[in-house]
Amino acid sequence: MWLEDSYTMSNSCPSQRDSGFNSRPASLRSVDSSSTGAPMHHGSMHSYEQPMPQYAELQSAPPPPAKPEPTQVISELLGLLMEEDPVIVKEAILLTYLLIKEGGESRSEVIRSRELINTLLQTFGRHASDEKITQALSQFFYTLSQQQEGLRAIYDCGGIPHLLQHVYLGNPSVNYNISTLHNSLIVLQEQAANEIDKYEGIPKIIELLDQSNDKLHTLLVDSLLKLSIYNKKAKVFIQNNEVCVQRLLNIFETSSYDKLLLIISKLLPTISSGSEVMKKVMIQFNALNILEKILKTTKSIRIKHNCLTTLRNLSNQATRMRELDSLIQYLTGLLLSPNDRQSIVCSLGILNNLTADNRANKSLFVQLNAVQTLMQKLVVETDENDDFIEIAVGFCVFSSKIDFNSCCFSVVYTSTCDSSA
User: Fold this and answer.
1) Which residues of the chain are in CATH 1.25.10.10 domains?
2) What is the pTM of this model?
3) Which of 40, 53, 104, 331 has the most CB atoms less than 10 A away?
């Protein structure tokens, strides 16, 4: 998991025992009574003789009591969890947590006991005001969710709605609960996404974006991304939620956490492919400048491609915008990118939209010698890149008021001469 645990389960449980048996060196564990290497003594031997030990001292220690069976322990835990005393309830939760951490048959028995899982989930509601109990429960279910069988047990027992009830600002257990929900989306996919959408979990996840925690933001944004993939209703909701868009753009602009930036860059193309109204909203939230900033600073080719895709989606609503000189100049430079076909094609699509009905942008494009650059690139790429040729040719005829014929003839003639030479 990306999220570091902010809280640790108490280790002061009276039932927990040290498992480091026989941890001392072998030479310190016993004395070999048959050793023949007796030490040398001076004087009378009688003064050094030790009394023979009594027979009772030679008897072996009584065997430890047999370890109870997991089913017996679970039966006792069920009774303890129903107690009214919160101290007893918390100790029962901690004991169940230790069984999960122990692994093996103990863990498997806990997962198989749907009655125990149900009782633990209901304990959330009975002790909702007790922060220590809810925190212990949150850590228990997070640990349980780290295996597929545990996630299935949580889902089968209706765990997702219980967890969503404890996902809110100010809750100290929110990290664990969001991590558990995120694990559910990774493994259960459509099932978890449908359940989260059914119990109105998406607005709660969006609300948490208001916190200032990069690692929590990473889990939240990736959860939104997976919800948009696995649930069509969730996708539409995210695409049309202005609060979500604004917070994502703010985080994208201010954060320097690479994992978070990558995931936001994956989600923005989905949002920007929605309605034309939301495209205008994104532009009003300064999306073009934020995307340009990220393009110029990131070292990740994946973030770069995602930003260009988002810009291409938005560009048809930015045709009449002014003061885009810096962006147009940057995109024109990308036309010369070596071995980066995706960046070139995206840049052409964006420039095509930005210059279509904007005389100032057209003039700047020509002043940057972009026409000659484009035609030279077109000559080089004629063999395999049909999509590039289609965009480039369409781009070159976008205006009858600019005479590209001489430029095209000059470039083609120069290329032919160079190749014949």
Assistant:
1) 68-188
2) 0.78
3) 331
Q: Can you read off the two tokens belonging to residue 262?
A: 């990558």
User: Side chain identity at 356, as an amino acid letter?
Assistant: A
Q: What are phi and psi of 58, to 5 degrees?
A: -90, -5
How far lies 275's CA from each of 281, 283, 317, in Å? 10, 13, 11
Cα dihedral 409, 410, 416, 417 in deg (nearest 10): 140
Closest CA to 89 of 97, 98, 80: 80
In this prediction, residue 359 has a pLDDT band, given cuts at 50, 70 and 90, of confident
User: In the numeric block, which tokens belong to residue 37?
Assistant: 């290497």
CB 115 within 8 A of CB 78: yes
Token output for 313: 């989606």
Find the range with the poorest average confidence among 13-27, 64-78, 258-272, 378-392: 13-27
Rounded Cα distance, 103 and 120, in Å: 19
Tell me how far apart the alpha carbons of residues 362 and 43 are, in angstroms, rounded to a whole number: 114
Residue in 98, 95, 93, 100 with CA at minimum distance from that of residue 136: 93
At 8, which helix (H) or strand (E)? none
**What CATH fold (topology level) applies to the domain 68-188?**
Leucine-rich Repeat Variant (1.25.10)
CA–CA gap between residue 387 and residue 371 (Å, rounded): 18
Q: How far is CA 385 from CA 200, 327, 366, 380, 390, in A?
A: 46, 25, 24, 10, 9
Residue 144: CB atoms within 10 A of its CB come to 24
Task: Evaluate whether 392 touches 356 at the Cβ level (below 8 Å).
Answer: no
Query: What angle separates helix 287-297 from helix 258-272, to the nearest 10 degrees?
Result: 140
In sign, the C-alpha dihedral spanning 226, 229, 234, 236 is positive
CB 137 within 8 A of CB 93: yes
Beta strand spans in 312-397 (E): none
Burial class (CB in 10 A: 0-12, 13-18, 19+), 372: middle
Say which residue the tokens 């310190």 belong to.
28
Q: In this predicted model, what pLDDT tens digit does every residue of 390-403 receive, in sequence order?
A: 666 666 655 434 44
